[in-house]
């Protein structure tokens, strides 16, 4: 359904506008064509796509081209390349689309089934924060490979640790940075989402499962328990009995079971999962960024506070949105029977 830009995309534009450095159009073209044939997600290894935005006629395909260099000058811009993830920015292909783009992050440590070593998580947090600060991005998608979203925290890294060390460094506390973004994150889970992989997915705002996805908290088999939210977020998603069963037996559940239990919101054919997640990201990105952020905040507050406090918080957020231009635009557009043009103000 989706393809790289060279393969005449119909539903999205994929841009390498975050890549810069010496001119190397050939390398970029090669990487695009590899993406269109060998990589069905059109993922462009960032190290290989250098300066394409200065060479390609991006202004004809990308209305955001003028802003392509902007985020490199800020502290919170994407890095030139990452060791353990791939990053890509996609925009809707319809040139009249007013919405923002989607930041797609692919965990990429294939030999270890995307085991979440410290370096991978550092990369992930960096890219998530960069997308969160990028004005052109309205939603973030995190995915892995077809075999593994992530097979958990890195066991070889953990196996050498002692109590004093893990306690003093408050091991895994930094993972929660993922939950501090103001923009929604969609987890597109194919294959194994085990231990920390399942916990990472649960830190996201929407979970979509590929038909062959498997979820589990197998830490009990290693003589430990989940340490990044598995005992806390899972019970909120699937209830006590199912959460206990998963945490105490270490047994995995299928995508359909995860759907039936309320852990994921959709099961999608694994071949098209990522594209569908990006499409959902576009739908979110075309809304008012103000309303989207406040909606995310309000829904997440529900997990932390009493109902009356949550209702109060929701109402205050609702009131606050009347101070935005987007509320005026959204309601005027409805009454004038036209599409709203939100400016995220
Ligand atoms: N850490 C480090 N390496 C891992 C890993 C992990 N969590 N999971 C898989 N790997 C590595 C394997 O060691 C193997 O490496 P080598 O080829 O060098 O031997 C490679 O990935 C492929 O794995 P398998 O050969 O085991 O692949 P498989 O298809 O036979 O099995 C699997 C797949 C069922 C996911 C199995 O790899 C497995 O059970 N992995 C561990 C899952 C796990 O226990 N996760 C929880 C970790 S603890 C945690 O996450 C704590 C927390 O709360 C944050």
Strand order across the largest sheet: 1-2-3-4-6-8-11
- When the domains are counted, the total is 2
Question: What is the string of SSEs from the N terminus onward?
Answer: EHHHEEHEEHHEEHEEHHEHEHHHH
Category from helices, strands and their pairing: alpha/beta
How big a fraction of the residues is strand? 5-15%
Strand tally, please? Answer: 11
Oligomer: single chain
CATH class descriptor name of the largest domain = Alpha Beta
Coarse shape: globular
Biggest β-sheet description:
7 strands, mixed
CATH topology of the largest domain: 2-enoyl-CoA Hydratase, Chain A, domain 1
**DSSP helical segment count:** 14
**Bound molecule kinds, no repeats:** acetoacetyl-coenzyme A
How much is the average pLDDT? 82
- CATH level-four homologous superfamily name of the largest domain: 2-enoyl-CoA Hydratase, Chain A, domain 1
How large is the radius of gyration?
20 Å
Short structural summary:
The chain has 345 residues and is α/β, with parallel strands linked by helices. Helix content is 39%, strand content 14%. Residues 1-13 and 15-74 have low confidence and may be disordered.
Give a description of the structure:
The chain folds into two domains: 12-285, 2-enoyl-CoA Hydratase, Chain A, domain 1 (Alpha-Beta Complex), CATH 3.90.226; 289-335, Lyase 2-enoyl-coa Hydratase, Chain  A, domain 2, CATH 1.10.12. The strands form two sheets. It has a seven-stranded mixed sheet with strand order 1-2-3-4-6-8-11, sandwiched between helices. The chain is built from 14 helices and eleven strands. Residues 1-13 and 15-74 have low confidence and may be disordered. Helix 4 links the parallel strand 3 and strand 4 (137-143). The protein is of the alpha/beta class. The chain is globular, with a radius of gyration of 20 Å.
